[in-house]
């Protein structure tokens, strides 16, 4: 059984968390739950990993709290991570012996599309980094 979202009326879930070492896990579990509740369990682990990478970047390099939004539509799910730093992340080539530096490459490889924008919302000036997963065509009717 999936969520019943319609393109004109998508379901939007939000979460705010402090930029602490525990936040990636909380945000990852939040996103995994949304995907599972929407009947998209097969995408939940990849979405959780992408979320964890983006939230970890906020903890390590960002500024302010993490603000997340997940929007479920009939044909896709978008997860957006906001923070107050105006510095856009830039992918870098990690050396083979490094244990970090691959997060944006993972998000690019796992998601169907991803991107980032400067964010001048009512919550402050910063950035939004997002990714999307397309709903498999066989499931779009269950989300319509």
Automatic annotation (TrEMBL):
Residue intervals passing through the bilayer: none
GO MF term (any one): ATP binding
Keywords: ATP-binding, Kinase, Nucleotide-binding, Serine/threonine-protein kinase, Transferase
Keyword Nucleotidyltransferase: no
The Histidine kinase/HSP90-like ATPase domain, residue ranges: 18-130
Keyword Cell membrane part of the UniProt annotation: no
Record-linked PANTHER family: ANTI-SIGMA-F FACTOR RSBW, ANTI-SIGMA-F FACTOR RSBW-RELATED
Protein name: ATP-binding region ATPase domain protein
Source organism of the structure: Streptomyces iranensis
